[in-house]
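Progress report, Aim 2. The chain analyzed during this reporting quarter is listed below.
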Amino acid sequence: MQLKEYFQQFGPVADVIMDKDKGSYAIVEFEEQVGTQATLDQLQHDMDGLKLKVKPREKKDFNVVIKKKQESKNTQVNLEVLSRELCQAASVNEQMLRVVESFQLNENERNSRELLVKLLQEVFTEFLPDCEILPFGSTINTFGVHSCDMDLFLDLEKTKIFQSRSKSSTEQAGDCQSEDGRSEDSILSDIDLTTASAVEVLDLVATVLRKCVPGVQKVQTLPTARLPVIKFHHRDLNLHGDISINNRLALRNTRFLQLCSGLDARLRPLVYTIRFWAKQKQLAGNPFGGGPLLNNYALTLLVIFFLQTRDPPVLPSVDQLKDMACEEEECVIEGWDCTFPSQPIAVPPSKNTEDLCTLLAAFFSYYSQFDFLASVVSVREARQLPQYPQTQTTQDNGAPRSSVGPKRKMTVLDPFELSHNVAGNVNERSLKSFQRECGDAEKYCRSLQYQRKSTKGKSWGLVRLFAPRCPTVPGAGGGGQGEAKEERRLEIRLPFRPEALPGSVCSQLSTLSEGFREQWFAMVRVVVKKVLQEVLGCRPAREEDFEDQMNTSISSDTVTMDTANPVEEQGSHAQAEDLPTSSCLSSDTPASSDCTLQMGQKRPLSSTGPDSSSGSPQGKRQRLSSAGEGPGSACWCLVQRHRVWAGRRRVRRDMLKSGTTEASLSEEGGVAMEVRVTELITAKEPDPLDLLAFRVGAEVVGGGDNMEALLRFTPLYDSSGLFQDFFHFLESFIPKTTEVLLGLQEEK
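Predicted structure tokens for the chain:
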């Protein structure tokens, strides 16, 4: 310990704490105060030719528990738990308040962010005296969510003054000290902050982050962004952050959002609810920084603008707020007028008495009909402005600034920087999706399922509204590149493998000529249905109950789901006398049928020829003789009420270790054990909710050795966002279990 030996000359050293991560500094703790004072009394310290910079350690009380990275993941919202909590709420108003409680930053997260600001402030002050680290954005604007990035502004104005002052003082002092006794560190002496470019300053800041801030990693400079930033990650606090040096307007935007939040308590629940809805519908959130989706700031401004246009208004315009500010609150940044009151008490309260439930429905109605192509959203004036091909705005100094350019799809002006369209990245497709989803939500908000709590414990209110956006139904239109990718991902192919079949079955199939294809598919169809219903416990349901989710247009009809009486099967000719007609009808056509109906298309009636015994009285629906099955295709609508895909390996391992009769379940190639595993998992949930519903379309494709059964999965209801996990499990489970059961056909 070279450091310990050096400082022993001033007094007994109790401990030396090195910065193991960076190796740039150390804390020396003396046993007696005399040793500390003797060290500080010596102006210069040289250790083997290395100049040491010594200063007293400030005592800081950081009341925060730094959690491990794995523990920090617990702050993420569990959608299944959230859905259950929302179902228990008494009203939509209460549901929206619970959304805020679930997503907002908790006390420990706020303390962690404060700790990071203090840490950065302490380190940067050593190299950039009088600088200030100022947080802005979601961290402090009252709309932060768990694990949101931390936006920071590094204010160097006072540092520039210090540097200018120190240049003249160091020439007189001769020992690199300024008049106030502080040293200008060498890292600052290598650059003139007044004349340096933004890129040069960012490189300097990035160097300090990499070498001197404990726990900081993944430092990346983005000099070509609209506002150049430095991205980093703090390992111990598990926080991602951005540092900018030319973003003073963002501080004012943050104060504006804080003011709006304090003016009316309805704003935060609306913003949190609409942000999460937009995320679930894939309308917002560009995870890699760029992209055509709405950002959270643009969504928040859309909510504020909507509230400004209510009658009477919930929030005033920025121009009105400017008139309410006093002289001391006047603020002009980069030529833009950013004046507004600093405290909500200066603004008269709103006379609007609409509740959250009503305002949310009105938001969807308002923007489903908004003419974005011809209008500009202006929070500053609280009114729609015409979208001219090229508008000009002028700063206070008379310099012109170009506003939004031509052919903008969505224009949402920043409240202060009027040349900045905060939704400029949104393309035509994203705009259409936003307005379509608003229209669907507006229809749903007119239904009783939105307004009234279900007496049967079913999903209602925000739960159904938050249902994730389902991928495009195969054959239902669209056909975009992204949609095609999603369809391929929701397919499972079961190839024809004669070596997996018993010899007698192969011999039987080989005697068939024209019916070989259909006979093999009939066997696969029966086995797949057995895997889904008997092994995994899925239950048949009526697809009509989920058409609103499938087509992303929500009906006002009452939803009832009959899963109590599954259809009894006898081979491949199960009778379904009590099962209402599904929209997946039987098909006697070849394999090209994909069992889907276009939105609004009428269901075809069954044959009513002289020999038909399936005729029904006028005005009543036809009944199917099978659950949507035919020679070349099949289609089932199923409901899964338990998370049977989660923890199966652990349950199976516990069974094998138990030594009971359960551990000897080896008949049917282990299928019986899988059935028992499902039973044990479902037994842990005596009162389950309807987790998800889905449709399975099956058809036989190809021929000869290239023949295979194609299973297409379409989620119909997935309020907790679990279908992707379920499908990922099925991708391996269905082929493996199906092959085992096909190998047992000889014994049947």
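Residues 66 and 457 are 39 Å apart (CA to CA). DSSP finds 24 helices and 21 strands in the chain. These observations will guide the mutagenesis work planned for the next reporting period.
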